[in-house]
Amino acid sequence: MKQHRVSLKDLAAQLGVSIATVSRALRNSHEVGEELRERVQKLAKELNYRPNPFAQSLRSEAPKVIGVVVPNLVTHYYSAVLDGIEDYASQEGYSVMAINSHEDYLKEEKAINNFINMHVEGIIACLSQDTTDYSHFEAIHKMGIPLVFFARTCMPELFSQVVANGDEAAQQATEHLIKTGSRRVAFLGGPNHLDMVKRRKHGYLEALKANKIPIDRDIIVCGKINFAQAQQQTIRLLKKENRPDAILAFNDIITYAAFTAVKSLGLRIPEDVAIIGFTDTEASEYVTPKLSTIEDQSHKTGTLACELLMRVIKGDTKRYHEVVPMKLMIRESSAKIKESKQS
User: Fold this and answer.
1) Which residue among 243, 273, 328, 343 has the highest number of C-beta atoms inside a 10 angstrom radius?
2) Alpha-carbon gap, residue 336 to 56, rounded angstroms
3) Model pTM?
4) Into how many domains does the chain fold?
């Protein structure tokens, strides 16, 4: 059963005193006797009461604020999603406060607790790559705080979410690599527990199966989303005797790490190693060769996530699972031969 956020009114009702008395007791005011102060503070702790700083400081015009937690705010994808959230929130009269978890579970958990303490109207979140414990989100659900996930998600039975069709996009990209001459396509992914990684890897494997290409687990590498580590993993793969002749990379960090690794070994793109990466940055058109990419509609993802959150805030109890289609952009880095010759 859902629990609402405990208010001063709730505490006052249980104790049989006025709201003003409860407020003074929680501030350790000398106007309230010690015995009553202790009773008030004990009950507040038992009921997990959180003071609302906005209501305290701006009681006449409390701002309507939503919180957003992202794993890596400096990347183009997350900043574009945030831009979409802000656009929609502004239309609805809300302000947005964003916190960067830096791909760290503890920082994500702290961000959620900070938002609870701020009494935000709702939260939009994307899991950090380290998150495998979802208890802080379960607490959000029990408190009845509206929350919507995007991109990397969990607990769809409790929360609405907005994701991309990464499985279909990965399958389409892998099919393109195969049709243009590649036969040993490597997959460079993030942590296996992330639903986003699972979807993209599934699409990659389906393309191999459909084209009767044996699955080689040695060229499927899923680890930390870290530029240096991804670069070293790519170099290790490319130094193998039977090295990959193409790479499908999970996100922009891993894509550019792989691109840099290929170049560092003096290999040619795409003649020696073709590359397609999931990325949503304009830089793909400004590298040499121009990078083939699978692009998120990140701004649309943000606006849709915010739209769903507003529905929940307004009382909609339905659980939504929205899928935003991705776009395969073929440039110079992926085709060993013209696709038309294979058709």
Assistant:
1) 273
2) 64
3) 0.81
4) 3
